[in-house]
């Protein structure tokens, strides 16, 4: 039987913590290795810490450190893909897909998690999701991992139907919060929201954090 | 970065005049503007490592927001809403405008060497 291994493909340091930290933690609890392929260093982010401690030129270094801490907190391996924040959609899709495929062929994951193209709000999310889906599709069917795509857009459930996977990550809430908190330059807004409204059922933003939802990609049609 | 001290910024702008310099110019309201508010527009632009030479530049304004203009042979570089500055350890002039949550809204940076993907080291 194939050894389980999960690969998460998102473009920014913090996407993993906000989007999938609970799911990641549940796999790590079972002893399944998880590798995060992080597309960029989020160097064009506009959050500079609150109060501000980074600037446009130092932000990438801070975010790289934050990413390393988050991955340590979540106990996952991380690989930096080296693209530049905001520019992923202007890269050649086939080139990015081939890059991802070469890494996937090496790791041989059983599950790949990425963003749902067209429903992931940030252009980098949509672009890297597109490339990831293509990369997995290019792997021959017998060795092809399962792929879960995460949608974020406000309209997604109306258009795509109910997600196939809906993880209530409450059991891993502390772990998820610890991971989010490592992203000091980015997360201050979200952290104050959480502290103001600890009952996360009452707040739509926090509800998104509690339930990590994914669509199982169907390669057969 | 610290709040703009007009004289110091003007001095720094003068020091780069008549030299080949690299400019990073940017404005953004973030990639999530219309996600969090459906009536909002996502707007932004940036140019990184534009190589220019300006004959002179000025910082104008007072109080909490400034404008910076650099006069080129054939045009202008312009930024509005600049609030903070830093002359970093590589002697680059970094200027930016932040909103009340500390988010960057505009940036104008001038350097004699190209801006890199990652900063070498943070202090």
Helix content of chain B: 10-25%
Number of helices of chain B: 2
Cα-based radius of gyration of chain A, to the nearest Å? 17 Å
H-E string of chain A: EHEHEHEHEHEHHHE
For the biggest sheet of chain B, the summary is: 6 strands, antiparallel
Pfam family, one (chain A): PIG-L
InterPro entries (chain A): BshB2 (IPR023841), GlcNAc_PI_deacetylase-related (IPR003737), LmbE-like_dom_sf (IPR024078)
Cofactor (chain A): Zn(2+)
GO molecular function (chain A): hydrolase activity, acting on carbon-nitrogen (but not peptide) bonds, in linear amides
List the helices and strands and how they pair.
The complex is a heterodimer of chains A (221) and B (123).
Chain A: E1 6-10, H1 15-29, E2 34-38, H2 59-73, E3 77-80, H3 93-107, E4 111-115, H4 123-137, E5 146-150, H5 156-160, E6 165-168, H6 173-182, H7 184-196, H8 204-210, E7 211-216
Parallel strand pairs in A: 1-2, 1-4, 2-3, 4-5
Antiparallel strand pairs in A: 5-7, 6-7
Helix pairs in contact in A: 1-6, 2-6, 3-4, 6-7
Chain B: E1 2-3, H1 6-15, E2 21-28, H2 33-36, E3 44-52, E4 54-62, E5 65-72, E6 76-82, E7 84-87, E8 93-98, E9 104-111
Antiparallel strand pairs in B: 1-7, 2-3, 2-9, 4-5, 5-6, 7-8, 8-9
């Amino acid at each position: 039987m194939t050894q389980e291994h999960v690969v998460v493909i998102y473009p920014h340091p913090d996407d993993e913590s906000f989007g999938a930290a609970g799911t990641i933690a549940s796999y790590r609890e079972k002893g399944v290795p998880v590798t995060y392929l992080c597309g960029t260093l989020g160097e064009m982010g506009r959050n500079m810490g609150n109060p501000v401690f980074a600037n446009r030129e130092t932000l990438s270094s801070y975010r790289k450190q934050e990413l390393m801490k988050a991955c340590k907190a979540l106990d996952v391996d991380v690989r930096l893909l080296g693209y530049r924040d905001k520019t992923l959609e202007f890269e050649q899709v086939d080139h990015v897909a081939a890059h991802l495929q070469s890494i996937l062929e090496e790791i041989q994951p059983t599950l790949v998690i990425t963003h749902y193209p067209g429903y992931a709000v940030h252009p980098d999310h949509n672009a890297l999701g597109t490339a990831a889906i293509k990369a997995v599709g290019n792997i021959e069917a017998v060795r092809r991992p399962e792929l879960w795509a995460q949608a974020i857009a406000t309209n997604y459930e109306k258009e795509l139907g109910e997600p196939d996977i809906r993880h209530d990550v409450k059991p891993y809430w502390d772990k998820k919060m610890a991971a989010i908190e490592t992203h000091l330059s980015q997360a201050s807004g979200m952290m104050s929201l959480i502290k103001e409204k600890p009952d996360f059922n009452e707040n739509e933003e926090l509800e998104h954090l509690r339930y990590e939802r994914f669509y199982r990609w169907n390669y057969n049609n | 970065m610290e709040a703009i001290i007009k004289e110091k910024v003007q001095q720094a702008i003068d020091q780069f005049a008549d030299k080949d310099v690299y400019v990073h110019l940017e404005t953004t309201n973030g990639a999530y503007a219309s996600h969090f508010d459906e009536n909002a527009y996502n707007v932004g632009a940036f140019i990184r490592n534009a190589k220019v030479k300006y004959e002179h530049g000025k910082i104008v304004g007072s109080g909490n927001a400034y404008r910076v203009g650099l006069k080129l042979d054939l045009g202008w570089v312009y930024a509005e809403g600049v609030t903070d500055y830093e002359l970093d350890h590589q002697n680059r002039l970094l200027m930016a405008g932040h909103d009340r949550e500390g988010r960057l809204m505009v940036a104008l940076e001038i350097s004699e060497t190209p801006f890199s993907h990652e900063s070498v080291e943070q202090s």
